[in-house]
Structure formats: C-alpha cells, structure tokens
Amino acid sequence: MHGETNEEHKPDPEILEQPAEAVLDEPVIEEQVVEEQLTEPAPAAPSGYDDVSALFERLAATEPGSAAHAVARDALINRCIPLADHIARKFSGRGEPFDDLSQVARVGLVHAVDRFDLSRGSNFLSFAVPTIMGEVRRYFRDNTWAMRVPRRVKETHLRIGAAVDQLSQRLGRSPTAKEIAAELDVDPDEVTQAVIAGNAYQPTSIDAASVGRDSDASLLDTLGEEESQFDRVEEYIAVRPLLAGLPERERRILTMRFFESMTQTQIANQLGISQMHVSRILAKTLARLRDLSERD
Questions:
Q1: pLDDT band at 259; cut points 50, 70, 90
Q2: Of 252, 253, 243, which Cα lies nearest the Cα of 277?
Q3: Residue 186 φ/ψ region, left for φ over 0, alpha for ψ in the -120 to 50 degree band, beta for the rest
C-alpha cells in the first residue's frame, strides 16, 4: 500500500497555491458532517465524495514512484481540496488570514491522502477530517499570538519586515522607526507598538525542542532571567545604526543576549563576570539606546 510518503511524489505546487474560490463549485460536506467525523469512527461518506474510494483504488493499482502514481495521487488530492477549504473556513475569524488556513488545511489533506490505508476498509473522510483539523489546530498552537493584539497592530507588524528590507536596500543602512512609519504611512507610535507586540507572536511552539542544540531542551528551558526591558529590544532593531556607537563590551553583551539568545548566566560565565553585573550592563545599555533613539 502507499502508506509511506514518497519523496518523488510531492504534490503539484498548483494544488496548494490555487485560490480557494477556484474550487468553491465543488461539493463540500455540511458542517454537521464535520462534527460527526470527530465523534463517529466510520460514518457513511456524504454525498459528493462517493467516488473517493474508487480514486484510492486507482492510486493503489499504480506503481509507487511512477508517473501514473503521481497523476493519480494529484487527482485524488485535487478532488478533496473542497473538504480542506471547508474545514479551514470553520477556523476563520480567529485573527489568521483564510488563505493561510487554507494552505495549512491542504497540507493536512496531503498527509491524510499519503497515510490512508484503503485495505483497512475504513472511510477516508473519517480519517481525513481529524487529520486536517489536527493540522490546523497545530498551526494555531505554533503560529498564534500569546496575548490579544488589535488587528491593526497585527497588520502593521506583518508589514514592517518587508518595509525594513526595502528601506535597507534603498538607504544602504537599517532604517529608523520614523522612516519605517513614513514608508508605511502610519504614526511612529504605531510602528513601536507593532514591533513590541511582535514579542507576543509565537512562530514556534515554546515547548518544541530548540533547533541547533545538542540537547533536547525546549525553548522554554533556554529562556534566561526575566528582564523588565526585554520587550523593548525589537524596537531598537529599527535603529541598529545606534549600536555602532556603543562601547565594545556593551555591544557584545547586547548581541549575545538578544541576537545569540544567551542567558545572563551564560554571558557572565563566558566573560568571567557576575550575572548581576551583566544585568546592570544590559539595563544601562538599553536605557542609553532608548535615549539616543528619542533624540533621533
């Protein structure tokens, strides 16, 4: 059977990139059916998807790795895209763009198609619905905001990255907060709020193992001591030219703490000073940067 995902058989990018509107004419299952899939092990396939079993049989009859297998697989995925988009729609209105949710749901659909075993005699929808919903829920768990942030601030936060890239190329240096605000046609205070709010965004689960480390320590395990000035750091990323004016040791400690993700204790051990001394230097340096940025 084709329970294993074949490296050569990645879905056609067009499957994941085509807009949801392109498949709205296809039949979708009713919302009640989605809920039933979560409570009943193998309900009857709803009207409109009766042909899915035949598509799986056609896929099973092909040789894994062959062109025929890839064609049959893509046809099956395309056939069930309305199901993925329907589930994505159930999660809309929670602050995440529908297009993003649709992409995630379609990835879940691909996983469901690759893992489904027709020989077990179960209904594909009873397997696909929880698989897709699990993928979307995982997205919300790992890619959502840790606190309530106004939509306007979220949108500004998402625009800042592109604005910084464009301004950096145009100016030949990192832009100031005021220049970013002018580029986005917003108030400078809004840029500051959006940058600080970025600390409430969780692109990676805090319980996930840290990438690039030898141990299995989670991100939560690597966090250092609490610092009252921490959520100001990203604000200063917009004024990086100011960092050049700092003494070497202050600039090094700031870089180690906020750009190399080292704890105060790790910094202290590496520099041969006390953790309390590191804490004082950080507080003094951040206050100095704040004063310099306000004069700009």
A1: low
A2: 253
A3: beta
The domains found in the chain, sorted by start residue, are: 13-142 (1.20.120.1810), 229-296 (1.10.10.10)
**Three-state DSSP class for 42?**
coil
| Sign of the torsion formed by the C-alpha atoms of 95, 98, 104 and 108 | positive
Q: How confident is the model at residue 244 (pLDDT cuts 50, 70, 90)?
A: low
**Exposed e or buried b per residue across 128-161, where buried means at least 16 C-beta atoms within 10 angstroms of its C-beta:** bbbbbbebbeebeeeeebeeebeeebbebbebbe
Task: Check if the beta carbon of residue 252 is closer than 8 Å to that of residue 278.
Answer: no
- 18 contact partners, CB below 8 Å, separation of at least 6: 81
DSSP 218: B
Beta bridge partners of 202: 144
> What pLDDT, on the 0 to 100 scale, is given for residue 237?
45
